[in-house]
Amino acid sequence: MRVLFYSVALISGAACSQQQAPEHELVMRAIETAVELPNGARAFGEYSRNYALRPDGKVVAVYVMPWPMKARDSDYGCEVILKDLGSRPCTDAEKAEFAVQENANADLFGRANQSRWFDNYRDLPMILDGGCDLVTIIFDPKSQQIESMQCNGEA
User: Fold this and answer.
1) What is d(CA 10, CA 90) in angstroms, rounded to the nearest whole number?
2) How far apart are CA 147 and CA 31, in angstroms?
3) Which of 49, 90, 129, 133 is exposed most, by the fewest CB atoms within 10 A?
């Protein structure tokens, strides 16, 4: 019965609404319960877990390491590299701009141990190479099986 429930929820479409949210939660939990991360992957709770329905009816999961959000204190500096390969300290305006960019990246990549459903699979976070900092999982709701799981390539 549970298999049929998951399948019906996923086949009904990718658009997220208040009524579909509980079904998406169940699908995410089903995948998270079944997943065994590949060798080289980090601990499960370190990843931001992101899910979406593909046009073929399968669920793609992208587990990605969250964007680093290091404390800004005297241990961390900000420098601008100059054309002559020298450097200078960041201005207050540059520090503020960097903070805005860092927060936008955090919103894109999510937070550690957070599960998120996306209405469109094209909106899932993506990085080039990165090894096991990004793990892609394909889940078939009809068979309730994980079809593939792999770490991203490395440059």
Assistant:
1) 48
2) 11
3) 129
Judged by DSSP in three states, 9 sits in: helix
Q: Which residue has the tokens 């996923």?
A: 10
Q: How long is the chain?
A: 155
How far is Cα 47 from Cα 44, in angstroms, rounded to an integer? 6
Comparing 112 with 17, the larger pLDDT belongs to: 112
Q: Which residue has the tokens 């999961």?
A: 61
Using CA atoms of 84, 85, 86, 87 in order, give the dihedral in degrees to the nearest 10. Answer: 120
What's the rounded Cα separation, in Å, for the pair 69 and 72? 9
The bridge status of strand 79-81 relative to strand 145-151 is unpaired
Supply the DSSP string of 53-65, one letter for each residue: E-TTS-EEEEEEP
Best mean pLDDT range from 45-54, 65-74, 94-103: 45-54
pLDDT of res. 104: 82
How many CA atoms, within 13 angstroms, populate the side-chain half-sphere of residue 105? 14
Exposed (0-12), middle (13-18) or buried (19+): which is 77, by Cβ within 10 Å?
exposed
pLDDT, one tens digit per residue, over 66-95 is 876 444 444 467 899 999 999 999 999 998
